[in-house]
Amino acid sequence: MKHPREVLLGAQAATAVLPVCDHYSGVEARMRKSLQLQAEMMEEFGACVFDVTLDCEDGAPVGGEADHAAMVVALAALAGDKARVAVRVHAVDHPAFESDMAVIAGKLSRQLSHIMIPKVDSVADVIRAEEALLAASAGNLPLHVLIESPLAVRNAFEIAAHPRVQSLSFGLMDFVSSHGGAIPADGMSSQGQFTHPLVVRAKLEIASACHAYGKVPSHCVVTEFNDSVAMTLAARRASRELGYTRMWSIHPNQIRSILEAFAPSEAEIEDATKIIAAGARADWAPISFYGKLHDRASYRYFWQVLERAHQTGSLLALEAQDYFQDAPV
């Protein structure tokens, strides 16, 4: 019997399944703790439930970019085979960009899950980053890009269309700052970022661009990292209202809140399990489930519920767990 991914995921589905949380750290001690926490939670959940992105852009001291990149390489090389580790390099117009890519992509092409490129304004920036990957013999690595300006939002669809791009993230603070004071500081808060029209419009454009091209939209940070209620509410709104399937964490306390907010409910998982099982028994022909018609269009949705449940470490019935044992990717 064919796996649901082989039958249901076509041009309208995401081209990659990524953990719902992307955790950033830029200081060596925190990087080490992040990698250790990832390993511990991988053991706990039986899956890698968050990425660790080691940060060169904001983590490296001015003048110490080369030393910081070397330290990142050494740390990433120690990660386990099943770890998901990425690196945020400097922007393409930064003096350290070329050396970042040569050293990090060149030495870690087999260990990294992707490279994050900040301050991407156009597809020309993506092309320049791709050329740097190829020059470093790291043509296997996907690019994630950070949308941080009004111009980048304007070009989001073209950026998302590039085949090297796997995910678009929204850079909230730089986006607000790029408006020259036209957006108040509250637009960067956990609540204000969901109410200011320009910020919400940018988030919706990015999410829409990603879904148009089967890419992963990744929501921005919540800076109030000690406020678990604010974090949970923001993550839930990002997931349920704005169409994001991934979110940044900047503190270990935020990771579980993101997992919980992005996870399907028990009732959603139960329905998805039953509908996918019934569809498989019918060889994916249409079925009736509690008086409602289901076919491949709705099967795709319910399969993605199960994938998100697996990504967030949710408890799955045995018949659903079988789908994630040596599943095709």
Could you provide a short overview of the structure?
The protein is of the alpha/beta class. It has helices at residues 4-8, 28-45, 65-77, 97-108, 123-135, 150-154, 156-161, 172-177, 197-212, 228-240, 252-262, 266-281, 296-311, 318-321, and strands at 21-25, 50-55, 85-88, 112-117, 143-147, 165-170, 216-219, 246-249, 287-289, 292-294. The protein has 14 helices and ten strands.
What does the largest sheet look like? Answer: 8 strands, parallel, barrel
Distance from N terminus to C terminus (CA atoms, Å) equals 16 Å
Oligomer: single chain
Overall outline: globular
The largest beta-sheet arranges its strands as: 1-2-3-4-5-6-7-8
Low-confidence stretches: none
Mean pLDDT: 93
List keywords for this structure.
two-stranded antiparallel sheet, 47% helix, 329 residues, 10 strands, alpha/beta
Give a verbal description of the structure.
- The protein has 329 residues and is α/β, with parallel strands linked by helices.
- 47% of the residues lie in helices and 14% in strands.
- It is built from 14 helices and ten strands.
- α3 packs parallel to α4, α4 packs across α5 and α12 crosses α13.
- The two termini are 16 Å apart.
List the helices and strands and how they pair.
Blueprint: H1 4-8, E1 21-25, H2 28-45, E2 50-55, H3 65-77, E3 85-88, H4 97-108, E4 112-117, H5 123-135, E5 143-147, H6 150-154, H7 156-161, E6 165-170, H8 172-177, H9 197-212, E7 216-219, H10 228-240, E8 246-249, H11 252-262, H12 266-281, E9 287-289, E10 292-294, H13 296-311, H14 318-321
Parallel strand pairs: 1-2, 1-8, 2-3, 3-4, 4-5, 5-6, 6-7, 7-8
Antiparallel strand pairs: 9-10
